[in-house]
């Protein structure tokens, strides 16, 4: 009598490569180091405390949940650390420390673990955590500082705050990061360095960042918003969103055509919100919305198996 062996199959894709989850996350952490240094340089100790609180909260939330549910503890794969960093990068330095703690537990437990853990969440945990915090505590999430002074973000100025007397920073300041905004989004230079590293290490594909950024630039340039269209690239969350969040393996398409469609969709939604929405930035919401369309995009773009009848 033959024995029956039961196998546990993880979420797809089932492709063996030299990269492991831990090595991928380690490369992402390395790629985020320039933006971390820039954030602490421009926003001082407040930024460092926010980053530490966010990372520790995410790691602790994953550990507590997996212990409580008798699962294997997987904090060594570093995915919770990456979520903590990205969540912190989407917070203002003036945020109270309880904000990243609540956001960290929400991102890990509600968005990630409730759906089965790493690779099975349907939206990006850090972005979902940011959206939750913005909806729950909008004042704390939209108070921007630079050098200890409250300041308008360049996107708010582009949106119409220039009528109050605010002026756009120089393109160099916007590129380097000497502007108001969230901790990890202000320095386009630091984020581009990190993105170049990830592309070089073949951790991410260039298609999503390129189509996301390019679509946003084209649409906002056609719309004729105030200021040089290049501002649309350097300010706000476009760089960090396109490079580090839209490329999340669990929540983006795996096919080349699918990634192009995904990036274009993100760019279109971001532009619509920036131009017509009541909030000056649309990167987070565009990625979250497109995350929900990933199954449909993959259905459209996955090559049909040879011999399969429609």
Q: Characterize the largest beta sheet: strand count, sense, and whether it forms a barrel.
A: 2 strands, antiparallel
Count of alpha and pi helical runs: 13
| CATH fold call | Ammonium transporter fold
CATH architecture field: Orthogonal Bundle
Q: How do the strands line up in the largest sheet?
A: 1-2
- What Rg is obtained from the alpha carbons, in whole angstroms? 20 Å
First-last Cα distance: 39 Å
Q: Overall pLDDT, averaged? A: 87
Proportion of strand residues = under 5%
Oligomer: single chain
Going by helix content, strand content and strand pairing, the class is mainly alpha
Low-confidence runs of at least 5 consecutive residues: none
CATH class: Mainly Alpha
Give the overall shape: globular
Portion of residues within helices:
55-70%
Estimate nothing, just give the exact number of structural domains: 1
DSSP E strands, number: 2
Order of helices and strands: HHHHHEEHHHHHHHH
Subcellular location: Cell membrane
Family: Belongs to the NqrB/RnfD family.
EC number: 7.-.-.-
Keywords: Cell membrane, Electron transport, Flavoprotein, FMN, Membrane, Oxidoreductase, Phosphoprotein, Translocase, Transmembrane, Transmembrane helix, Transport
